[in-house]
Design a protein that fits this description.
A hairpin with a 2-residue loop joins β2 and β3. The protein has a single domain, classed as Spore Coat Polysaccharide Biosynthesis Protein SpsA, Chain A. α3 packs across α5 and α5 packs across α6. The strands form three sheets. It has a seven-stranded mixed beta sheet, sandwiched between helices. It has seven helices and eleven strands. The radius of gyration is 18 Å and the shape is globular. By secondary structure, the chain is an alpha/beta fold. Bound molecules: cytidine-5'-triphosphate and the ligand C[C@](O)(CO)[C@H](O)COP(=O)(O)O. The site of cytidine-5'-triphosphate has 21 residues, from β1 and α3.
């Protein structure tokens, strides 16, 4: 339940990566899934979401124009700002923050097109209630810690392990501070929660879904097609 008066919620969709692990000529966020580039499917979730009042898409500088033209072509209803990102994901998020006005901000990977409207709502509501929230799923495998020579050094209790997803939701002012402290200290994190945690802010985990995959390597593309087909069969379209 939302306990704080809200005057707007923005989302930063980061899509300025090179997709090294995908290894495709085209950056993975622009590969076609069904009839649209992956990043357009992702944007549509937020474009249709009633809580989202501000959308900032962060792309490579060379991709701003084609993204604007897709946004027009696919008939997005909200005004979406498209800006250029930075060398690391973290830098791209920070660029987005500099263009954001809303007091609450969600950060989402452009290559997670299967996030649902309900997951976005749950993450946002948990952030407003608890201060910061991330979507995640319980880890299904047994996870081992392994040293540089390949020896197992520990087996953490799986019950405390969650695989972190996006969106992640924060107070904008706090996230800006977290990014600026990280930058000053030369710290690069793989998600925004890590930066917020370093400020001592507690982050609530909200159960996401196993289908909210990040399209990272080629086999994820096959799985993405499969998820899309299953959703279509269930009459859910891509969402
Ligand atoms: N400098 C960067 C790096 C990443 N991202 C975005 O962050 C999201 C998650 O990152 P990841 O899957 O690691 O994407 P890439 O960095 O593109 O992939 P890789 O690490 O394989 O190069 C992606 O939507 C990606 O476009 C970004 O906006 N700016
Ligand atoms: C933010 C993220 O998607 C959460 O799982 C992830 O940390 C991105 O990290 P990657 O190392 O760029 O895949």
């Amino acid at each position: 339940m939302v306990t704080e008066v809200n005057t707007g919620t923005g989302v930063i969709v980061v899509a300025a990566g090179r997709g090294t692990r995908m290894g495709s000529k085209e950056s993975k966020q622009y590969l076609m899934l069904q009839d649209k580039p992956i990043v357009i499917h992702t944007l549509e979730v937020f474009d249709r979401h009633p809580l989202i009042t501000e959308i900032i898409l962060v792309t490579g500088a060379q991709d701003v124009e084609r993204c604007l033209s897709w946004i027009h072509e696919f008939g997005m209803t909200k005004k979406i700002k498209v800006i250029a990102g930075g060398a690391e994901r973290q830098h791209s998020v920070y660029q987005g923050l500099l263009h954001m006005n809303s007091p609450w901000v969600l950060v989402h990977d452009g290559v997670r097109p299967f996030v649902t409207q309900q997951q976005v709502t749950s993450c946002y509501e948990a952030a407003v209630q608890h201060g910061a929230a991330v979507l995640a799923v319980p880890v299904k495998d047994t996870v081992k810690q392994v040293d540089g020579q390949g020896w197992v050094t520990a087996t953490p209790d799986r019950r405390s392990l969650w695989a972190i997803q996006t969106p992640q939701a924060f107070r904008r002012s706090e996230l800006i501070q977290a990014h600026e402290v990280a930058e000053e200290e030369g710290f690069i994190g793989t998600d925004d929660s890590m930066l917020i945690e370093r400020l001592g802010v507690q982050v609530m985990v909200v159960e996401g879904g196993y289908a909210n995959i990040k399209i990272t390597t080629p086999e994820d593309l096959d799985y993405a097609e499969f998820i899309r087909m299953k959703k279509e069969l269930k009459g859910e379209g891509i969402k």
